[in-house]
Amino acid sequence: MKLADLVSRFERLAPSCFAESWDNTGLLAGDLGRHAKTVLTTIDLTRAVLSEALSVGADVVYAYHPPLFKPIKRLVMPNVTFEAISRGIAIYSPHTALDVADGGTNDVLADACAMVSRRPLRMVPSPETHAKLVVFVPAHALDALSEAMFAAGAGVIGEYTHCSFRTLGTGTFFGNPSTNPAVGERGRLENVEETKVEVVVPLSKLDAVLAVMRALHPYEEPAYDLVRLVPTPEDRGIGRVGEVASTTLGALTAQLKQFFQVPAVLYVGQMDTPLSRVAVAAGSGADLLHDAITQRADAFVTGELRHHDALLAAEANIAVICLRHSVSERRALDGVVARLGAACEGVSFLRSAVDRDPFEFA
Fold first, then answer.
1. Which of 205, 214, 239, 251 is most deeply packed, by most CB within 10 A?
2. What is the CA radius of gyration of the chain?
3. Within this chain, do residues 27 and 156 fall inside the same structural domain, yes or no?
4. Within 10 Å of residue 45's Cβ, how many Cβ atoms?
5. 92 Rama class: left (phi>0) / alpha (psi -120 to 50) / beta
6. Is 251 exposed, middle or buried (0-12, 13-18, 19+ CB in 10 A)?
């Protein structure tokens, strides 16, 4: 499968448009025209993981945490990312897009808590992805202009292409002496039969579609409108909050230790504290702690919290369980491998055997 097609499958699983604004998700390195047959999934691209990728012949590393995050000024050896690129290995990172996605990191964390009902802890706005182009075309240019706009990327709705709406009407214009109208004469009010053509255009292809429209439209000054399309609200967001069967902090702690196969966790609260409503946030949960408090969760399960956030939680009388940062995220890779493996025929998806949390318990 070409890397471009593979990236398209990655985006369907966890659309990058729902990632946090500060994040760096999507294809970070790679040639979209190359073919790929083996993908190694990991939380972090470490030197050990890169060695593993080379040993299994991986064409792509699907690294949850982006190894290229902040702007960089140079890539020189020794550098794991540089070495991966120099060996022809593509790098893709979903990060917070997978946190938002159905079945992603936060849903797995909610599953670990046996959350029986859930919703996002914090909603994320749906991104603007399309505009509507409305252009007025004389009959003799209608088909050729429409086909050119379709070829440039306009008129795609779901699995359908060449989508448009056309309305027949009359256009009027009066050309000044300096004009050279394609229809009629200058210095006279003209009435011309025209078709109003309406097409949706992805914002990523808007410049190309407008360039084609202007180049092929027979008028000196094409009349057209661009309409901003406000996205339909979606029930998407980061973190999860919901009800659990009546339990205690101690019981939930034991349940999570077993689920994530860890010998110990950090916690805030009393082990006999009753719980019925739980909030979860994979990774570093500080930014969502206030949301958990506001939504009256009895406990907040996350990867890690800073000292002062733990004090805030204690003051707000909300229990906390910290699993370690990547421990709270790693089990989600099971679902990634299963779902992408089913969707990408001919491509093998592997879980890294050496990817692990950098912290150990003494």
1. 239
2. 27
3. no
4. 27
5. beta
6. middle
pLDDT tens across 100-119, in order? 999 999 999 999 999 998 99
272-275 contact pairs (CB < 8 A, 24+): 272/248, 273/248, 273/249, 273/298, 273/299, 273/319, 274/246, 274/247, 274/248, 274/298, 275/244, 275/246, 275/247, 275/248, 275/249, 275/299, 275/319
Render pLDDT for 288-308 as a digit per residue (tens, 0 to 9).
999 999 999 999 999 999 999
Structural domain of residue 277, as residue ranges? 105-124+235-322
Q: What is the pLDDT of residues 154-196, one digit of tens each?
A: 999 988 999 999 999 998 888 888 888 877 788 889 888 999 9
Domain tally for the chain? 3
CATH number for the domain that contains residue 308: 3.40.1390.30
Query: CB 21: neighbour CB atoms within 10 A?
Result: 6
**Residue 166's beta-bridge partner residues?**
197
Strands (E), 100-175: 115-123, 130-138, 165-174
Domain with residue 150: its CATH number is 3.30.70.120
Structure-block tokens of residue 61: 């590393």
Span 338-356, average pLDDT: 95
pLDDT (0 to 100) of residue 233 = 66
Residue type, 1: M
